[in-house]
User: Which sequence fits this backbone?
C-alpha cells in the first residue's frame, strides 16, 4: 500500500475513504474502522509508549498492504490488533493489579468473617461468665459466714472478670492491627503497601506538597528480564525474587521515610515526600547498587540444583511539578523507567533528563 497512512489526527473520513478507494473497500465500515483506529485512536492511547503505538500502526498497515482486502485479511488485521492490545506489559500490569485487588479483597473478607465469628463467640463467653458470676454470687451470699467474706468473694470474681476483659481487649487490638495490615499491605510482598493504600497515600501527599510547597518525588522500579526468570525457573521462584527485592526496597525506604509499595507485577515504587528529584536519584542509585550486589539464593529441600540468581532493576525518578496531578507524577516516573530499560537496563534515569520528544 503506497498511500500515506501515517498518523495524522483530524484528516476526517473523506481521507480514509481516499486511502481505501484503490482497494475497492472505500465504503466498507469495517475497514474504515480499522484505519480510523490505527490513524487516530492509537495516538490518543496513554496506556502505551510512542514506540509501541508506532509498532501497532506499522503492523496494521503492513497487513493491509497485502491484497486482497477480503474478510480473511480483515480477520488477520483484527487478530493482530487484539494480540497487541492483550499481550503487552501494560495490560499484564493491569491484570496483575486486578488479581492483587481480588486477592486483597478475598483476604480482607476472610479476616472480617473470622472476626465476626470470634465476636459472636466472645459475646457468648461473656454472657456465660456473667451468668456464672450471678450464680456464684448467690451461692456466696447463702453460704458465707459474714458480710466481709461475701465482699471478699465478690471482689475476687470481679477481679477475674476485669482480667479477662483486659486480655480480651489486647486480643481485639491485635486483631484490629491485623485487619489494618490485611487492608493496606500487599498479599504477596508483605513488607510493601498495597496499590490501594498507595493511591490514597499519593493523593494525601500531593495535597500536602501543594499546600506546603515541599518537593515530592516518585521512584518507579522494574525488575530487568523478570519474564525470563519466570520462564526459566517458574513463578514460585519469581515470587521469591520479588520477596527479596521487596525486603531491600523496604529497608532503603525506611532510611529516608519513603512509602514503599507494589505497583503491579514486578513493578515496585517508593513515594518520597520532602525530597526533590536530585535527592531521590541519589537514593535510587544506592538502592540499585544494593539490588545488583544481592543475588537471590533459592531455598531448596536438600541439594539445590539452581545457582543463585542475579537480578537488577531499572529505576525511573520524577518530581511533582506545579499544577501536576498524582497521575502525571506516576506517568513521568514510568517514562523515566522505560528510558532506563531502553537505555540498557540496570540504571537510574531522572525524568528531567529526558529530551522533550522522549518525555512527551
Assistant:
Amino acid at each position: 500500500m503506497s498511500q500515506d497512512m501515517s498518523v495524522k489526527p483530524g484528516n476526517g473520513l473523506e481521507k480514509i475513504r481516499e486511502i481505501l478507494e484503490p482497494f475497492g473497500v472505500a465504503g466498507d465500515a469495517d475497514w474504515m474502522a480499522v484505519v480510523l483506529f490505527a490513524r487516530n485512536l492509537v495516538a490518543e492511547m496513554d496506556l502505551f509508549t510512542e514506540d509501541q503505538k508506532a509498532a501497532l500502526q506499522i503492523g496494521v498497515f503492513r497487513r493491509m498492504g497485502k491484497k486482497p482486502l477480503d474478510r480473511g485479511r480483515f480477520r488477520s488485521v483484527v487478530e493482530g490488533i487484539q494480540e497487541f492490545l492483550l499481550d503487552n506489559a501494560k495490560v499484564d500490569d493491569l491484570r496483575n493489579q486486578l488479581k492483587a485487588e481480588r486477592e486483597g479483597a478475598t483476604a480482607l473478607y476472610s479476616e472480617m468473617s473470622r472476626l465476626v465469628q470470634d465476636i459472636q463467640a466472645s459475646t457468648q463467653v461473656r454472657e456465660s461468665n456473667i451468668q456464672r458470676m450471678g450464680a456464684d454470687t448467690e451461692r456466696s451470699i447463702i453460704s458465707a459466714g459474714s458480710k466481709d467474706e461475701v465482699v471478699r468473694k465478690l471482689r475476687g470474681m470481679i477481679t477475674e472478670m476485669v482480667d479477662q476483659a483486659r486480655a480480651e481487649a489486647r486480643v481485639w487490638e491485635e486483631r484490629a492491627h491485623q485487619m489494618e495490615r490485611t487492608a493496606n499491605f500487599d498479599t504477596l510482598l508483605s513488607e510493601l503497601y498495597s496499590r490501594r493504600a498507595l493511591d490514597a497515600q499519593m493523593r494525601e501527599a500531593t495535597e500536602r506538597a501543594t499546600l506546603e510547597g515541599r518537593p515530592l518525588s516518585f521512584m518507579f522500579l522494574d525488575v530487568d528480564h523478570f519474564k525470563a526468570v519466570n520462564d526459566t525457573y517458574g513463578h514460585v521462584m519469581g515470587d521469591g525474587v520479588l520477596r527479596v527485592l521487596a525486603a531491600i526496597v523496604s529497608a532503603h525506604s525506611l532510611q529516608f521515610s519513603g512509602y514503599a509499595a507494589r505497583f503491579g507485577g514486578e513493578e515496585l515504587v517508593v513515594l518520597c515526600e520532602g525530597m526533590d528529584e536530585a535527592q531521590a536519584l541519589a537514593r535510587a542509585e544506592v538502592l540499585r547498587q544494593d539490588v545488583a550486589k544481592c543475588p537471590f539464593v533459592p531455598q531448596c529441600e536438600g541439594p539445590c540444583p539452581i545457582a543463585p540468581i542475579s537480578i537488577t532493576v531499572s529505576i525511573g525518578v520524577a518530581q511533582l511539578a506545579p499544577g501536576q496531578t498524582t497521575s502525571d507524577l506516576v506517568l513521568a516516573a514510568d517514562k523515566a523507567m522505560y528510558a532506563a530499560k531502553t537505555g540498557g537496563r540496570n540504571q537510574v534515569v531522572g525524568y528531567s533528563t529526558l529530551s522533550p520528544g522522549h518525555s512527551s
